[in-house]
């Protein structure tokens, strides 16, 4: 899986540059259909790949209970293979099973989520204020929601991934197009940085002062 992810990242480098360069010049990037699809896969993978994200969706304890439930069902369905089933029931084997499932889900992008991303399009947020910048976190993709409004189909739900200190890329408003937005004040930048820090165990930025400011605020 790490090899597959490294291949994806290598392919995505060109797409990221195709977004970053024109965005910094205040222009919309002209991505091909294939580049857009590659971006959606990369974006979705960055959202799902970190252990922190996986455990936020399903904790290790919950995952182990699911494995135990499955083993119980197997014992009932195939008693003639009980010895084989019990080899999967050791603590080590159950932990290994959970790890394998987590890895496999990274490499299988949800077709449904991909359709939502394609329908919503791509939004680009560019910082134009001097001395302001995005941080990066160990959970790099942040989802911004309102109470009782968490479905990605909802255009008010935002998702962002900073690709540079001055540019973040996220989901669009629903027309499948690419849009470019300049920040007019520091509040969206601060909000995004705090959201990233709040969900991440580790953060980094271009200055120690910014890291300290965000760490104290979360």
Strand content: 5-15%
The helix content is: 40-55%
What is the radius of gyration? 20 Å
Q: Order of SSEs, N→C?
A: HHHHHHHEEEEEEHEH
Q: Ends: how far apart?
A: 33 Å
Please state the overall shape, judged from the principal axes of the Cα atoms.
elongated
Structural description of this entry:
The mean pLDDT is 88. This protein starts with a helix and ends with a helix. The protein has 9 helices and 7 strands. Helices cover 54% and strands 12% of the residues. Helix 1 (2-24) packs across helix 2 (33-48). By secondary structure, the chain is an alpha+beta fold. The strands form 2 sheets. Strands 3-4-5-1-6 form a 5-stranded mixed sheet, with helices on both faces. A hairpin with a 4-residue loop joins strand 4 (158-162) and strand 5. It is elongated and about 70 Å long.
Features:
218 residues, alpha+beta, five-stranded mixed beta sheet, two-stranded antiparallel sheet, 7 strands
TL;DR?
With 218 residues, the protein is an alpha+beta fold.
How is the topology of this model organized?
Layout: H1 2-24, H2 33-48, H3 51-57, H4 60-77, H5 82-86, H6 91-106, H7 111-120, E1 122-126, E2 136-137, E3 142-144, E4 158-162, E5 167-171, E6 178-182, H8 187-199, E7 203-204, H9 208-217
Parallel strand pairs: 1-6
Antiparallel strand pairs: 1-5, 2-7, 3-4, 4-5
């Amino acid at each position: 899986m790490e090899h597959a992810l490294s291949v994806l990242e290598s392919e995505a480098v060109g797409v990221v540059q195709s977004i970053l360069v024109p965005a910094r010049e205040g222009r919309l990037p002209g991505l091909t259909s294939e580049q857009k699809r590659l971006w959606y896969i990369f974006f979705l993978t960055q959202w799902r790949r970190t252990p922190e994200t996986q455990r936020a969706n399903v904790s290790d304890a919950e995952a182990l209970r699911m494995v135990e439930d499955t083993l119980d069902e197997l014992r009932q369905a195939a008693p003639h293979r009980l010895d084989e089933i019990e080899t999967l029931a050791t603590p080590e084997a159950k932990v290994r099973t959970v790890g394998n499932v987590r890895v496999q889900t990274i490499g299988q992008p949800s077709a449904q989520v991909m359709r939502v991303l394609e329908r919503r399009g791509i939004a680009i947020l560019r910082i134009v204020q001097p001395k302001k910048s995005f941080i990066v976190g160990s959970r790099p993709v942040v989802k911004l929601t309102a109470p009782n409004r968490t479905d990605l189909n909802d255009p008010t739900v935002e998702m962002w991934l900073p690709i540079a200190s001055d540019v973040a890329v996220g989901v669009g408003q629903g027309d499948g197009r690419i849009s470019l937005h300049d920040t007019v004040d520091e509040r969206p930048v601060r909000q995004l940085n705090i959201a990233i820090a709040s969900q991440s165990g580790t953060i980094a930025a271009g200055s120690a002062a910014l890291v300290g400011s965000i760490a104290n605020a979360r």
